[in-house]
Design goal:
Elements lengths: L4 H11 L6 H7 L3 H4 L9 H22 L5 H11 L2 H10 L10 H5 L6 H19 L1 H11 L16 H11 L6 E7 L6 E8 L2 E8 L2 H17 L1
Antiparallel strand pairs: 1-2, 2-3
Helix pairs in contact: 2-8, 4-5, 4-8, 4-9, 6-8, 8-9, 10-11
Length: 230
């Protein structure tokens, strides 16, 4: 699989930024599993590292400007509500980014294009590519377009985002046992990916992925809440 110019132009239109160097966008969508099967190809990991830092800065600036009455701890919580693998994967799905990610045969067969960790990393890599190609203003504008609308309007709305607490309440209300989480991890210590299962009475009701145990558990709790509420 390769990304032709028309496909790259389509992705650029979706994120609202036109690249001068299309090679940066190609690299941002190259997962390491694909690179291992294509000699000489560079993965998106370095761009993801850069994009993660750019995203953190941009969202921190946005919440600082919007919520001038909140203390540092609450601003941190607001930033975490959108700077996490689950939230970023949702944005990536909305713009159909997974369809364009270059994956190795094994990862593609394992539905890697819909894995939260792969989607969120690719989104951050694309942001890193935008930063390198167009500078801080272009990257900030991408965050404003795609991420800012997801930031809660008030700090009080954050309580609705604590799905582990909500799941516990829903479980108790329905007379079921306390939720239990099973967490596993893959990857080296400096770049671990976590996967969590949310179980109630031995039944798996949700699963989530993230770059921390907490993020993975929140993702699993989110799915479980939807399952119990349906």
């Amino acid at each position: 699989m390769q990304l032709d110019s028309d496909e790259l132009d389509g992705i650029a239109a979706t994120i609202g930024y036109s690249f001068t160097d299309g090679g940066l966008l190609r690299r941002a969508l190259a997962h390491r599993s694909w690179c291992s099967e294509n000699s000489g190809a560079e993965s998106n990991e370095r761009l993801e590292f850069l994009g993660d830092a750019v995203l953190g800065w941009a969202v921190a600036d946005i919440v600082y400007q919007r919520f001038d009455e909140l203390p540092e701890g609450h601003l941190t919580d607001l930033r975490k509500s959108v700077v996490n693998a689950t939230a970023l994967a949702e944005v990536a799905r909305e713009i159909d980014l997974g369809h364009h990610i270059l994956l190795g045969r094994g990862e593609a067969a394992a539905d890697g294009a819909d894995k939260a960790s792969i989607l969120s990393d690719a989104f951050e890599a694309v942001l890193g590519a935008v930063y390198l190609d167009g500078g801080a203003d272009a990257a900030y504008q991408m965050v404003e377009r795609l991420i800012e609308p997801r930031i809660p309007d008030t700090f009080g709305a954050l309580s609705q985002l604590d799905y582990k607490t909500r799941l516990q309440e829903l479980s108790a209300r329905s007379g079921r046992s306390v939720p239990v989480y099973q967490v596993s991890s893959t990857g080296p210590d400096h770049a671990k990916s976590f996967r969590a299962l949310a179980l109630i009475d031995g039944e798996v009701l949700g699963e989530g992925e993230g770059r921390s145990k907490k993020a993975a558990e929140q993702g699993a709790a989110t799915q479980a809440c939807l399952a119990l509420s349906s």
